[in-house]
Structures are given as C-alpha cells and as structure tokens.
Amino acid sequence: MKSTTLLTILIVAGMVLGAIVGEFILNGQSIGSGHWTKVAGDLVLVRPLKLLVIPLVLFSVVAGITRIGDPAKLGRLGGATLLYYFSTMLIAVAVGATLVQFTNPGDLPTEVRESIVATGETAFSSDTTLQAKVDDKTMGGTWTNILYQLIPSNIMREMSAGRPLGIIVFAIGLGLALAAGGERTRAAREFFDAVFEALMILVQWVIWITPIGVFFLVAWTVGRIGLGNLTGPLGGYMATVFLGLAIHGLVILPLILWVFGRVHPYRFMAKMKPALLTAFGTDSSSATLPVTIETAIDEGECSEQASNFVLPLGSTINMDGTALYEAVAVLFLFQLYGIDLGLGQILLVVITATLAAVGAAGIPSAGLVTMVIVIAAVNASLGGAAELPIAAIGVILGVDRILDMCRTTVNVWGDAVGARIMTRIAPDGPVE
Ligand code: ASP
To answer: How many CB atoms lie within 10 A of CB 155?
Structure first.
C-alpha cells in the first residue's frame, strides 16, 4: 500500500473515532477551550506544525524565487497568481450570496428567532476575548495593518510574531538578489535549497502524527457542539454554508483546474487528501501549510517554483471558503434580524466579504472576527435605519468550529488548485 493511502486511511479513522468519542462520550459535558482533548490536539499536531511554518515560509519562498530567477517571469507568475486568488474568491462569495437568497435560512418562526438571538447576544457579551478581537477590526485599520505587514521594518519581529506576509516580501527580495548574484551567491542559493529539503523531510515525519492530532481535535469539536445541532434552528444556515462550499470546492474549482490547468481535477484532489484532511482537522490553513507544500510537490506534481510561491502566499490571502462563509453568515444574520437588503447592499457584501477574507489570518475563527468589517460596511450603507448589532455574531459563534473546519479545507484546496495551475507558467527547469 502506498504511504499516502495508508496515511489517508489513518487520518479518516482518527476523524471517525474522534466524532464517535465526541458525540457519545464527551457531548453534554462542559467543554471549553482548555479541555484536555483540545490541549492534546494542540500539543500533538497544531504546535509541531506551527513550529515549522515560519522557517518554511522563509526557506520555501527564497528557494522558489531563486529557481525562478528572472524578475519578468516572477512578475508574470505573481500577476497570474493574484488574478487567480481574487477571481476565485469573488466567485466563491457570489455563490454564497446567491445561495442564501434561495435557501433563506434566517426566515424562522418569531419565537425561535427571538430565542436564538437572545442566547447569541448573551454568548457574545460574555465572551470578552471575542469582543476585544472584534473591537479593533475596522476596514481602514485592517488595511493599514496589511500594508504595515507588507512593508515590515524588522524581519525578526515579523518572525517572532508569526506574521508571514512580511517574511514573504523579504524572501522575494532576497531570492531575486541571490539569483542576480550569479557565482558570488551560489553557496547561499545551495544553502537555502538544502535547508528547504531538510524542512520537507521534517514535515514528512510530522505528518505521521496527524491522525492522532485529528482524533483529539475532532472529538473536542463534536463534543462541544454536538451533531444534534445540525438539525437545530441553525441547521438551515449550516446546510447553506456546507452546500455553498461543496459547490465551490467540488464543481467550480475543479472546473477551473480542468480548463486552466489541463489536469484531471478529482485525481488531483485525491492526491492532495493528506493536506485537505489536515486542514479539516487543524482548522488552520497556516498550520496546514507544511503539509500542503509537501503533498503538492511530492504527490500532486506541482512544480517547486510555483508551489513555493503560490502556497505560502495563498495560505494567508487566498481564502475562498472564508469569503463564501462570510457572505452567507452576514446575509443570514440580516435575514434573522428582519433587515431587508437591496441589490446594492448585497453587492457591497460581495466586495467587502472578499476583502475581509483576504484580511483574515489562516487561523481558527479568523473569518468570524473579520466578518464585522462586512457588517459595519452594510450598516453604514443603511444610513442609520435598522442596524445589525455586532453582538449578532454570538448567534453563530457556537457552531462556528464545524463550519470553520470545512471552509479551511476549501481554503487549502483553492491554494492547491492555484499551485497546480501556476505550474504551467512556472514548471521546474533544471537547477543550475
Ligand atoms: N480557519 C480559516 C483558515 O485558517 C480562516 C477562517 O475562515 O476563520 O483558513
């Protein structure tokens, strides 16, 4: 049996066992974020993966850029990649926004509506951590923050804070300089290449603990939320998110891959399974990045040139699943609060949800927090008429983790599809 097949079987087994333990043993107990299953999952899987992310971002981008070498070729790859990121995210939001108009999940009987709104707002007002995160999320603030990250003043600080954007910018510059240096910088090029290979070997070892980590994390999620919630009053909302993600992940992205990448999309998806399952289990595209790079290059036949550039950047800015989710969630909340939106406001949701997804970090629940940007923009356009209170996100807080696991999987899938398509623009040539 191929080692990836065995790994996939083990991860799926971990997930199923986790769901069983969560539903039948843990559900009903009070399970917070300090529960032992969550702590064990973090220790076994999330922390070891995160440990690799920052060195990997630096070494993979430098190694990839030195291979590309030519700034003109990098410009073509960069332009095509950004076009891919933004167009797929816009399509994802459009799918979500259209779907939620048809399924109308916020149209619930008045007493059910009042009861979930009251419970949700209370949940929000007792969650001080979430309130603090939400407070500093304004559109202007978020964009200034992204610009500051793009032009950092101290690379060591970016590394210690775990912010990948600045490291990527620095690595692109360093990679180009190393390529331009010819004979003088050959030793450093070989150094970056060799450390990148060593990090990949480390990732291959860490990947084998994925099934155990996924077991703990799925048990924690299911134990906390309970599968019964899928049929509760939020069932329609959750089903809309699931359906939207399925349409985007299983139909639209495969179609894009088939047309622009000339690759059999479902065969490629099967090869990317370890990364997709890790995304599902860890709930973080950033923590999954080591596995995504390893699987894309070793199994998915993506070039190193494309993968080392498209995947690190994609894990922080390309989030199709999050963009789709933000649109569905915001429109659902407006429906639930009985606030009618016109076409102009729905278009505003489409645009701001795309930007909010770019601003979301690849960590659990980031999309839930940046959603306030979308809500604030729509509220402002309503001109002081009815407003959706920010506390409304408390309504969907309780079921967020399961949706987050699914949207993270689509986020990583979108990155992988991008790397496979860009392999056509930047195939691996012989390394000099
Ligand atoms: N958890 C998501 C990710 O890491 C971000 C989000 O939607 O919350 O990709």
So the answer is: 15
Pocket lining: 322 vs ligand 1, CB cutoff 6 Å: yes
141 versus 255: the higher-pLDDT residue is 255
CATH for 201: 1.10.3860.10
Q: Which atom of ligand 1 is nearest to the CA of 284?
A: 4
Question: Is 176 inside any structural domain?
Answer: yes
Q: What is the pLDDT of residue 183?
A: 92
Reported as a pLDDT band with limits 50, 70 and 90, residue 432 is: very low
Mean pLDDT of 52-70: 88
Residue 432 forms part of a structural domain:
no
189 and 179 in contact (C-beta within 8 Å)? yes
For every residue of 7-68, DSSP letters joined together read HHHHHHHHHHHHHHHIIIIIBTB---TT-HHHHHHIIIIIHHHHHHHHHHHHHHHHHHHHHH
- Only one residue has tokens 């894990």, namely 315
Q: How large is the average pLDDT for residues 296-307?
A: 93
In a domain, 236, yes or no: yes
Atom of ligand 1 at shortest range from CA of 321:
7
The whole domain housing 293 covers 3-422
CB 365 less than 6 A from any atom of ligand 1: yes
Q: Residues 329-375: pLDDT tens digits?
A: 999 999 999 998 889 889 999 999 998 898 888 888 888 888 888 99
Q: For 23, which DSSP code?
A: I
Q: Is 228 helix (H, G, I), strand (E, B) or coil?
A: helix
Q: What does the alpha-carbon distance between residue 136 and residue 134 come to, in Å, rounded to a whole number?
A: 6
Task: Give the total number of structural domains in the chain.
Answer: 1
- Ligand 1, atom 6, lies closest to the CA of 367
* Contact between residue 292 and residue 60 where contact means Cβ atoms under 8 Å apart: no
Confirm whether 428 is domain-assigned.
Answer: no
